[in-house]
Amino acid sequence: MESAAAIRVLVIDENPTSAGNLATFLSAHHYDVATCSALDGARDVVSSRRPHVLVLATKDHPHAEVEEVRKVYPRLPLVLLTAEAGQELLLDVEAFAPAVPASPSRGFGHIESAVEAAAHFS
């Protein structure tokens, strides 16, 4: 696995403030971070930046968004940030491995740990 300095991360979040805050935190911890606001915009960034890990922040319909990511990027490790919890969502995320769930309420350190774990899949 490459060092953390070389890990490229794409944060997909419709909220630019949240995406910017997470990108700032991860960049300060030596990740190479890009952001976009939607899955559609991610295609160009994935092609040009070739991230090691996708971080998908979702509020609505996390199941559908995870399925969409897996259709388009089946081999890219995914960190799913969602406030939704429950066994069904965890099973969905595990079915689309490599994927790691993370809860935004647990803080940026928790998210960074999930990114690091997901990067080991790439």
TrEMBL record:
<dbReference type="InterPro" id="IPR001789">
    <property type="entry name" value="Sig_transdc_resp-reg_receiver"/>
</dbReference>
<dbReference type="GO" id="GO:0000160">
    <property type="term" value="P:phosphorelay signal transduction system"/>
</dbReference>
<dbReference type="InterPro" id="IPR011006">
    <property type="entry name" value="CheY-like_superfamily"/>
</dbReference>
<protein>
    <submittedName>
        <fullName>Response regulator</fullName>
    </submittedName>
</protein>
<feature type="domain" description="Response regulatory">
    <location>
        <begin position="8"/>
        <end position="115"/>
    </location>
</feature>
